[in-house]
Amino acid sequence: MQGKSSVSGDNNAAGLTGLTGLTGIDVDLHDVGELTPSIAAVAALASTPSALRNIEHLRLHETDRLSALANEINKLGGDVTQTASDLMINPKPLKLSAATPTDHYLFNTYEDHRMATAGAIIGLVVPGVIVENIETTKKTLPDFPGLWRQMLGN
Question: Which of 27, 47, 63, 101 is the most exposed, having the fewest neighbouring CB atoms within 10 Å of its CB?
């Protein structure tokens, strides 16, 4: 994705930057499927298409993660299509829809901690995105809700 990550300072601040902008990837995620929601969120913000492949087993997790990711990203104006085993992500600017009756969009987590993490990533870039039940992240990162609130300044 042509990005660079870093951890610095006493608070272990993390950063992700694109060298010349994040670019898409074509990758088999079968063996690291748990990373798919986070990678899909970053891919939706990239400048070129991505193909996340061989992840059909994610349809059997807390929710059908392929459908959930496509649904939530597309509601923000994204262009995600799914096959039986893959997600194809074509970059489009993500934003609140003109049809959104408020100044925010509730990113549905489907009570799935990985979906909450994906929503958090998108919410860092897309103004007005609010993650439904960020507390679900406690399943794998107990301190995430507090860290998230600190990072957002509230």
Answer: 101
**HEC-encoded secondary structure of 46-66:** CCCCEEEECCHHHHHCCCCHH
The tally of domains found in the chain comes to 1
pTM assigned to the model: 0.83
Q: What is the CATH number of the domain that holds 64?
A: 3.65.10.10
- Per-residue pLDDT 10s for the chain (154 aa) are 555 666 566 665 656 555 457 899 999 999 999 999 999 999 999 999 999 999 999 999 889 999 999 999 999 999 999 999 999 999 899 987 765 667 788 999 999 999 999 999 999 889 889 899 988 888 888 888 788 778 777 6
Q: Report the alpha-carbon distance of residue 65 to residue 77 in Å, rounded.
A: 18
Q: Are 24 and 1 in contact (CB under 8 A)?
A: yes
In angstroms, rounded to a whole number, what is the distance separating the alpha carbons of residues 142 and 144? 6
Among residues 34, 62, 111, 135, the one annotated as catalytic is 34
Active site residue 72: no
